[in-house]
Each structure stands twice: as structure tokens, then as C-alpha cells.
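Contributing: when you submit paired examples, paste them exactly as shown. First protein:
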Amino acid sequence: MTIAHQTAPRIPEVDLGVHHKARGFGDRLAYGFTKTLRFCADTFFARRYGHRAIVLETVAAVPGMVGATLTHLRCLRNMCDDQGWIRTLMEEAENERMHLMTFIEVAKPTLFERCVILGVQWVFYLAFFTLYLVSARTAHRVVGYFEEEAVTSYTHFLAELDEGRTANGAAPAIARHYWKLPDDATLRDVVLVVRADEAHHRDVNHGFADVLAGRPATTATAPYPEHADEIRLAA
């Protein structure tokens, strides 16, 4: 049997300069809330980017599921089409969950961090669910700003790896499978594809917020890395 040579997929370029300028009270509220959480994350985790990713990706997987659920129910009530939003948001939630499963293999969470995850996830879920009911536009803007910060965090993570302050070990098997990475892929390769994922989510959510505000999306959507069709690894 001939084994095909595995080649590395092309990792999309990420525009690090994308930032949505806040317009109106809702945008400023979303931006202020995001910066407050960023300050808390920087204070608590400092440069422990692997551990930061575990906690933040747990939170990041919440908005897509909330948005998909409430959009689904709204479309049922109004008997209207969702314009592809439900599938997009569900895929976003799944993608963020795969980020979490990857970084659990990279940085084993402590018992204290697991307790933090439990508390933060419930508080954030209830808060975001309420916000989406009150203003879906502001909720998507929050996610857009979250993802801007995620792109920045993973860029800093890359600098840590490139400068040797964090060991650039082998990519976990789950990451190689999900992003179709070669067998010799490293943690740096993983961070690159995760950052590209976050850039895509950034632009999609800012675009959704713009549409809900009654105007066209202000930025083009960053390309998505290639993902596996079957996300589960064989037992």
C-alpha cells in the first residue's frame, strides 16, 4: 500500500491591524467590557499563554452557541430564513471548543484553574445570553472585540515561542488531525492556525453587528484555515 506524502496546509495571512472603531453607546460598551476582561486576563495569567488560552477558549465557545440557539428560536417564531447564521455560529462554537481541547494537551490546567473555568463560564453564559436578548448587535460586537484581543494574544504567544521563552514542542495529535497539519507540526504551527481562526471569527462577528445595525460590513472576512471534516480522532 502506498502512503501519500502529507504536506502542510497553507496557513492564511492574518491582518493584525484590523480594529472596528466604536460607533455609538453599544459599541463603546462592548469595547469597554472587552478591555476590562483583557486587563483581568493580563493580571491573572501574565505570560502563561497556554493557561490563558484554556480559560479564555472555554468562554469563547459560549457566544456562538448562544447566538445560534436564539437565532434558531427567532427564525422558528417568525417562520423566516436564517441567512446561514445558525450554521456559521454553531461552527464557531465547535471551532472554539477544539481550541480548548488542543490547549488542554499543551498546558494541563490546575484544579484552581478548573474551578475558575466553572465559575467564569456560568457567569459569562448568563450575562451573554441576557445581552443577546437585549441587543444582538452589541453581543456580536463584544465577540468581534474579543477576537481582536485574541489575535493580539496569540501574536504575543508567537513572539514567546520565537524568542525561546516558551518551548516549541510537538503539536498535539488532536491539533494535527483537526487542522490537517503534518506529523512534524509544532506548537508554533498550532498557534498560527488558531490565530487565523480567531481573525475569521473577528471579522464575521463585526460583520454580523454591522448588518444588525443596518449597514454593510466594514471589513472583509479573513480566510479560514482548512479543518478536518471529521473532528473526532479514532479511538
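Second protein:
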Amino acid sequence: MLENIKNTTVILGSQSPRRKQLLAGLGLTFEVEVRETVEFVDPNLSAIEAVRQIAICKAEAFRNRVDCLIICADTVVVSDKGEILGKPKDKQEAIATLTNLSGKKHLVLTAVAILWKGKISTFVEKTTVYFYELNLDEIEYYVTKFEPLDKAGSYGIQEWIGLIAIEKIEGEYNNVVGLPTAKLYQELKKLI
């Protein structure tokens, strides 16, 4: 696959440093370009369809780049009650979100949209994450010392909270970080 993509311009349509690092880990040479999109989601959609819609919207913004392979993604956390948890507005919301996730399992969904030769193909990867019980001191420490405001569900599994709070996961670890690399690689092999 890497040989086939060598002479293709690859664009990651995301400003996430974690997605950039994960895509680089696949051995791909790529550029980062972010285009403004309106991320309106129909409230009647399921979490899977909502995250897919956002990823497609991000890819649609690159329709004029017909000579490139575009990779866009969006990640959400879904609580045990089915509530979609995006990025928190502030530290208080991050504390409330982590308090809600404490001692429970939740679902992490990442939708990837690939624009190639005028067609958008998508997939949604699911990972179930089980949190140990967290006390308020631990939650406040994490929210104060790390950067939960740019992360769906108010946490990064690759940070301190992932080291102390994750009981287990079912599914791909990198999906929780923000880009399901194994599934993405398999999809790119089919396309290119």
C-alpha cells in the first residue's frame, strides 16, 4: 500500500496533534490542512450516524482537491446512558464529565471519512472503555495538570488518567486516542 500511495498527495484534515502523530506512525507522508466546517448534527441521529456525519462534512470541505487523498475524522464519547460527549466547554464541564464516567463503561466512536477520486468512503470504529472509580481529587488533578478541553469525553487515554483510571478496553486503543490506525490502514489498502 505504501508503494501505491508514494506519488499521491495525502492530506490529514485535522489539527489534532494526536491524529498527526498516529498517521505519521503508519509511514505515510502527508500535509495537514484544516478547513472550516459547520458541525451541525441532527439531534435525531444515533451517535454512530452523528459522528459519521461530522467526518463526512469535514471531507466535503475538500471536494475541490481532486488530486489528493483526504483523511478526516471525528471522535465522540458516548456515556453509559447514551449521551454524546464531545469536547468540554470549560474545566467545570470537564470535571462533571469525568465524574459521570467514573466507575462506569463508555463507548468511544471515531468516524473516518476518506475522500479519494471524488468518492467519500467512511467507517466508524467502536471501543468500549471501562473506568475505575475516580475521586474528586484525582479528577481535579487531571483537569488542572493536563488539557482535557481539546478532547472528546474530557480525557486523553494516553495521558495520566489513562495510566491510573482505565480498568480495561475492548477494541482498538488508537481509536480512543483519536484515529483507528489499523482499520484505517486496511481501508486504504482497499482503496489505493
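If you have annotations for the second protein, write them as plain sentences, like these:
Helices lie at 2-5, 17-25, 47-60, 91-101, 136-145, 160-165, 173-177, 181-191.
The longest strand covers residues 119-131.
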